[in-house]
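Person: I keep going back and forth on a fold encoding question. Show me how you would write down a chain together with its backbone fold. Please set it down just below, with no commentary around it:
Helper:
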Amino acid sequence: MKKYQVGIIGGTGMVGQRFITLMENHPWFQLTVIAASARSAGKSYEEAVNGRWALEQPMPEEAKKIVVMDAEADAEKIAGLVDFCFCAVDMKKEEIRALEEKYAKLECPIVSNNSAHRWTDDVPMVVPELNPEHIRIIDAQRRRLGTKRGFIAVKSNCSLQSYVPALHPLKKFGLDRALVCTYQAISGAGKTFERWPEMVDNVIPYIGGEEEKSEQEPLKLWGRIEGDRIVKAEGPSITAQCFRVACLDGHMAACFMKFQDQVPSMEEIKAEWASFRGRAQELELPSAPRQFLHYFEENDRPQTRLDRNLEHGMAVSIGRLRPDTQYDYKFVCLSHNTLRGAAGGAVLLAELLCKEGYISAK
């Protein structure tokens, strides 16, 4: 098949680097353009990143010699070279919104890792296994923007990717509310231990804006399309506390859940997790995990170092389901924050958009 030509806007940061590695040997996508700020423009990607490569996986050879373009000044040229772009820039939210909309109006679809457009009414925020039907709102967005090809689609916050997939198939039992405490790796802040020595042997009980995202974004994922907007769900309600912990990769969550009426048995819950398949699995998308939700019976699993890379970092690990004295049940869960939670989740979303006909090769 003819490969889609792909650009990465914000390719020098940690999530941008992860996008670069995920393009290597991708069966559908060909890395064509890397764009960043004006200070990186004109340099080879290897020179632009110089000393700041943050991943264990080596920099792909195909990326090293690509000359970095200016994400803002070269937007029109970039839009003409690619079929779509991933976006993972480090800018103010209003600047990100303007930049992403600029590309969309240049008829370049944007699949964004950024939070700037997550609450725009006609921008779908999608986890392909949970709410793939939300991509239909793109038709309304295109009417608003006056575009034929261009649009913006986003993925949700990285910390949601552990507990929301576990809660999702249990909504059928009348899930009423959940309490969640997340323990989030330092790569979620774009850091390594070398760059953030204060995090060694430390826990910080605050991540700016994270608790609000953890409580509100699931309601958009569980929402519905009404006319030309996505209306968020009224529940299940979630309350959250978020901690930064001394782990490099992997966001863990402790989750407590309460049901409205009939409480399912532990066996029923485990069966729902084991059998759950989403649109990504039905379509056999290249980045989709074959088994999305994995339950571990061992008392000490999942563990961050052992389980974050399960199914190439795209699966969710669950364990320690047990009754609770105040809620009905509690469990723990884990996902890889820069793979399932960030770049990998956006790549999977792009695969869905291509397969469903919203992104086409020129």
Q: What stands out?
A: The CA atoms of residues 50 and 109 lie 29 Å apart. The two ends are 13 Å apart (CA to CA).
